[in-house]
Amino acid sequence: MARGRPSKKHHIVSAACELFTIQGYQGTSIDQVVNAAAVSKPTVYSNFPTKLVLWEQVLESVSEAAEQSLSATFDACQQSASQEALTAWLNLWNTWVSKPERLAVYRIFIGEQHKMSATSMALFAQFEGQLEIILVRWKDVYQVPDDIYRLLDAVTRRSLLLPALLKQPAISKAELLSELQPIIGNH
């Protein structure tokens, strides 16, 4: 493998990620990736034989970045011993929904799932799994029962993830805390 190839490949993935985030899967062409990455079409195709393969590499990259970001947020929550369970929960969720590329992953899978391969579906499960791993760690640290965890997850998805996906304003942190507090009770 050529010495400069990994960085060029990363550069292509980064340019494609920006395009997929803004334009979606269907709206992004290989020609646009070529132009955005300022590389030749043969360079793109030598690394990614199809747009779907390129998308899958982007999805892996977004998933890896999500893991690092969520882990850092969780570690910061752990270092703040006084942080309440719900505040830590909301910090994790706000970290998750704050990145446009993560929201684009959801939008692409909601709108274009029929075009995705089994590999893409597995990568999407891995992507969602990054969030699940951290939230389960949160549940274990704060000793939250499974039924309460599932309720919190459902309410938070509806209150934070869905508005972010629809580009609508989310409810305020104070309002969400007041909605979630009765669910978690004394746990």
| Count of separate structural domains | 1
What class do helices, strands and sheet pairing give? mainly alpha
Beginning-to-end CA distance, first to last residue: 54 Å
Number of helices: 9
Radius of gyration: 19 Å
Helicity range: over 70%
Identify low-pLDDT runs.
Answer: none
Q: Note the beta-strand portion.
A: under 5%
Average pLDDT, to the nearest integer? 91
Number of strands: 0
Global geometry = elongated
SSE order, as H and E? HHHHHHHHH
The main pleated sheet reads as:
none
Keywords:
mainly alpha; 78% helix; elongated; 187 residues
Model description:
There is one protein chain. The protein has 187 residues and is mainly alpha-helical. The chain has helices at residues 5-23, 30-37, 41-47, 51-79, 85-97, 100-112, 118-141, 146-165, 173-184. Helix 5 runs parallel beside helix 8 (146-165). It is elongated, with a radius of gyration of 19 Å. The chain starts with a helix and ends with a helix.
Task: Describe the protein's topology.
Elements: H1 5-23, H2 30-37, H3 41-47, H4 51-79, H5 85-97, H6 100-112, H7 118-141, H8 146-165, H9 173-184
Helix pairs in contact: 1-2, 1-4, 1-6, 4-5, 4-7, 5-7, 5-8, 8-9
Summarize the structure.
With 187 residues, the chain is mostly helical.
